[in-house]
Amino acid sequence: MSIQDAHNISLQCGACPIRHRAVCARCETDELLLLEEIKYYRSFEAGQTVAWAGDKMDFVASVVSGIATLTQTMEDGRTQMVGLLLPSDFVGRPGRETAAYNVTATTDLLMCCFRKRPFEEMMLRTPHVAQRLLEMTLDELDAAREWMLLLGRKTAREKIASLVAIIARRDASLKLRSPQGRMVFDLPLTREAMADYLGLTLETVSRQISALKRDGVIELQGKRHVTIPDFDLLLTEAGDDNDGGYLI
Predict the structure, then answer these.
(1) In the CATH scheme, what is the code of domain 155-238?
(2) Distance from CA of residue 43 to its chain's centroid?
(3) H-type helices in the chain, by residue range?
(4) I need a labelling partner for 32 at 20 to 30 A (CA). Which of 7, 116, 167, 216 fits?
(5) pLDDT per position in the chain (248 positions), as tens?
């Protein structure tokens, strides 16, 4: 590969909206060149399945844009949503041949994919990738523990406020901003998806969102465009504080 090609790849990765958060965040130019050799993009329409639990998965990936859900189906057919994949989140697990959960695009989804076997080999030679993946794994573990608290102990109102705060924090992070003061973003989940994820009924989600809007905690334009006048107030409603939080 020529020096010019290497420069072009560096520029492309530098313009990537998740570059500073993704698994390649700590990579130098030579490491990005190695990733480029095994990288490809895949897009999925809302509702499309990315992977079925138990199926062989020959790639790992970072979510570039959009949102996906992780679900698990029990023997009697019931399905439980166990996680969300937001922009910059990592999909798949090196060293595991099959998908652990169903992965479904909730919105239109763009993923930056890497062929699994070459990626696993690269991890052994490239400390920056392995270190970043470890950091992301530990962040995911912290988020899972916080989510256990949310589902087990928080009220319906606190659950809704917490989920909005999660998405607000991620949106701010991708824009290289601190989550504070007045914040504006688009909510990527339908109210039905929020209900499934939070273990609430659709009616409860709609009622609590209306209550948060009535009390000035959030403002809505349509059903998705959200304004948070005061982020600290939202955290108070979530039973959280500005030092805690999920998926920062």
Answers:
(1) 1.10.10.10
(2) 16
(3) 3-14, 29-37, 116-125, 127-153, 156-174, 191-198, 202-214, 231-237
(4) 167
(5) 444 444 444 446 767 888 888 888 888 888 888 888 899 999 999 999 999 999 999 999 999 999 998 888 888 877 777 888 989 999 988 888 899 899 999 889 999 999 999 999 988 888 888 888 888 888 888 777 777 776 777 899 999 999 999 889 888 888 778 788 889 998 888 898 888 888 899 999 999 999 999 999 999 988 789 999 999 999 999 986 554 443 33
